[in-house]
Write a structure and sequence with these properties.
The two termini are about 25 Å apart. The strands form two sheets. Strands 9-8-7-6-2-3-1-10 form an eight-stranded mixed sheet. The protein is α/β, with parallel strands linked by helices. Helices cover about 25% and strands about 40% of the residues. A hairpin with a 4-residue loop joins β7 and β8. The structure holds zinc ion. Zinc ion binds near residues 87, 89, 97 and 100.
Length: about 150
């Protein structure tokens, strides 16, 4: 039992976005979209998709550009659920910064909400959750969908 299950497609889409942004010397971010299940009273997320929109980014900071919100709301029609977010730390490793913890606690408050951080330069990835200003890595598995 893992805390998060990520589809290989979502992971590949996020990694691709982060890698191309890192070639421009920038961070990047997007949302993790999927489903929530409960096992023995504990909710966990299955990430089906990585969805992104216009980013405002530098080498050490990223946020959605103002126009991203209407883009995202169009992409998220049809009852799909945001189960977390993903962003990159090009060549500085996987952790949550103070800003990242604040983002997690402000916008991703559900127990299943996950923060995926990818370092596309060092080829590292890790999922995190935050609580009361602290964060901790959580277990995850990358799954391939049977078609
Ligand atoms: Zn960060």
């Amino acid at each position: 039992m893992f805390d998060v299950y990520l589809s290989a497609d979502a992971m590949a889409a996020a990694t691709e976005h982060f890698r191309s942004a890192s070639w421009e010397g920038k961070e990047a971010m997007g949302l993790l979209v999927g489903r929530v299940f409960v096992f023995e009273g504990r909710p966990y997320a299955v990430v089906d998709e990585y969805v992104t929109a216009a980013n405002d980014a530098t080498a050490v900071h990223v946020r959605f550009a103002p126009e991203a919100f209407s883009e995202l709301s169009k992409k998220l029609m049809g009852g799909r659920r945001v189960v977390g977010w993903a962003h990159s730390h090009p060549d500085y490793g996987c952790f949550l910064s103070t800003t990242d913890v604040a983002t997690q606690e402000t916008y991703f408050q559900e127990p299943y909400h996950v923060a995926l951080v990818v370092d596309p330069v060092r080829n590292e990835k890790q999922c995190f959750k935050a609580n009361k200003g602290q964060y901790a890595p959580v277990s995850y598995a990358v799954i391939r969908k049977k078609s």
